[in-house]
Protein: DUF917 domain-containing protein
Organism: Pseudonocardia alaniniphila
Amino acid sequence: MTGTLTPPVTAIDEDDLESLARGAAVLGTGGGGDPYIGRLLAAQALREYGAVQLVAPAQLPDSATVFPVAMMGAPTVMVEKTPSVERIGHAVAALAEHLGVTPTHIACIEAGGVNSTFPLVAAAQLGLPLVDGDGMGRAFPELQMVLPTLHGVAATPMSIGDEKGNVGLLTSIDNHWAESLARSLTITMGCAAIISNYVMTGAQAREGLVAGTLSLCTRIGRRVEQVRAEHGDAVRAVADELGGRVLHTGKVVDVARRTTTGFARGSAVITGAGGDLTLEFQNEHLVALRDGRVEVTTPDLIIVLDTDSGEPVTTEALRFGHRVSVLAAPADERWHSPAGIALVGPRYFGYDTDPVRFDARERP
């Protein structure tokens, strides 16, 4: 990564939330939930319970018991079905009781506006440190699509609950079945649920997580604010932080979006000087095509920012007339392994193309 050197982040308090949520929404590649909602809930929890300590994965003892917590479902639904602070912490408590173990740390399973802040809520409420990392280095739409899956960590047992107080506990034969069963329950719960799963030892978390994600999110968010205050190019600053580049800048001229099978699915067309760029998404942006030619695909990151402010734009917030810039950035290298491509490559999502990796070279 490039960018201005800053002190390491060792704790998150209310003053850090805006930067953290902004950076998490950048890494969320359009998904991971509404950053504003996540920030509001985290602020409430931090005001009530105090700041949350961050612990690097390398500092985890082998004996640690790490509990990730996340929102599962369509981000568009979460805007209207906001859970309470208590429900987020209860997802961890219910699974811990079922397993008969005591959590020592909370973790993020993905980067995203909600899924990087909901774990803060649980950590504050339960008085536990939060691991400075996540299971993807970005966001993906399905439950099995995490690096711990590649390292043999089981998704279940898991807890799943809704905003009303219904809670279920699942055990599955593999992580793909966990996705299928939990997705059905999520749809029954109104397409938005809180889950806790992928419980890991400290050794498993050190191996399976992407280290430093929350520090990176906070750094990105702060840099956008700083560059904007200096009347600089916030979009370019984000690209620099991620080692990425700007693919396209233009105006959104078409958005087709629907909530189906628990996902926000659709496409958006952005017209600009370089022609038309079409983005295909399933919660997250998965494929970018310029005039029908594939430019970048999952697992590399495809990020949409407001051109003027550098603020991340989620898939549910894309609107006709919005002037945006599209960035591409490299994913964690483990996603480009054969097993990683099988799990999150474009063909898994039904696109008839092999992966097209991020190319750092600027277009002529």
Notes: The two ends are 24 Å apart (CA to CA).
